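Exercise 7 asks you to align residues with tokens for two separate proteins.
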Amino acid sequence: MKSRVVLPGGTIGILGGGQLGRMMALAARTLGFQVKALDPDATCPALSVVDECITASFADEGAAEKLARGSDTVTLEIEKVALSTLEAVARHAPMRPGADVLRVVQHRGRQKGWLAQGGFPLGPWREAHSAAELAEAIGALGGRCFVKSSEGGYDGRGQVEVTSSADAPTAWQELGERSVVVEAALDLQSELSVLVARSPRGETAVYPPAYNHHEERILAWSLLPGPLPEKVSARATEVARAITEALQVEGLLVVEMFLLRDGSLLVNELAPRPHNSFHSTEVACLTSQFEQAVRAACNLPLGSVEVVRPAAIVNLLGDLWLKEGGPRFEDVLAMPGVRLHLYGKRDARKGRKMGHLSAVGSTPEDALARVKAAATALGV
């Protein structure tokens, strides 16, 4: 079962029906696959594009087994899936990526420890399991730190910036009084990410690094290929490929990294799924990250990662929908080289990703200028 090839016409199961699951499902349909999903939200974005959507918790082993029994292979679009659920799936269908990968990735402390043990470059960090340990860690790391919940949290949630040990009690309480990872603040020059696809047969394909810009800890815009020095791109690719091989990933792995002003390249976090910073692959590359995820999950030959034209994306958050009159999409649809991507979410909330704009250009900088102009016209 581990090396099973699933050909077009087969059925793919997806754990998660958010926007990433929706876009994977659309790519799978283009290749001729049937698609099923499981998600706790009965109105999830994937609902309208899959053949069946099972509404159940990510800890519901029975529901996961039902998904697996009706699928030829199963993949995921979110890390917050119980390990027992992944193991339940694997009893009935190939689970790609599997529980061994998620066991490392979904707990920040365990992830950092695994990376450190493997000799991969990290910034200074510590774990804390109480307010007192947190205060001690903040002091040891120099005062200004980012404190992150060991599990869960994304898009700026589940983390707090502190400036001294005196902030420890408030941070501990704000993060739910549970295990945390403490990271020393770094002198950043830029942020980047590398996407590696790896099939069960051991074939790998690596996309060029993306250059990312965050605002309030949420990705605001991203460029592909990132305008980075050749040595930095080569080193980032080398590190990402090595991590993927060490984890024996079957599927996708995104390695988020920091480039420091002194030239150091450090690993930030891992994501074993499609990633916001590679949405531009839909318009930039011969094979999008979503089609690549499908190919890897099915043990099919991986597609070309060639960038045929530089591209950039800007995220569209729920704040835009909350403005009077809402977004005027016709304004951006008239712009050459710009595309609109909406996720089908029903409830707009501040900070919630509702869609994104993409644009292509003759250079990454040209693509970024176009997509920023479109975002401005939309009211971002």
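Second protein for Exercise 7:
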Amino acid sequence: MRSVLYVLTTLAVIGLAFWAYRENYATQSSLAKTDQLHRDIRTAHARLAVLKAEWAYLNRPNRLRDLADINFDRLGLLPFRPDQFGRVDEVAYPAPALLDITNSVEVSGTLPAEEGTE
């Protein structure tokens, strides 16, 4: 009886060791993936910062004004004047479209009386 108990205990220890071995490698794999994702996020943040800086550089008012002057013949761009702006209440919004009722139903008769109201 003792030998069966020793064999079962040995098999349980081997099974737990195998499980711990697999969990260790799964954990290390997850940690490696997490580290890679963190690196990717840092790279994306750095790229975004560069793109924002480039956008700010390209949208300098002096540069855009010079481009508008150079390309005036083709584009005809002029600066905004205060009289070109309007108020929201001056905007003519279209009237809402009416629903077309094509399948009309003829209704006649009376409604049935509710219980307890007679």
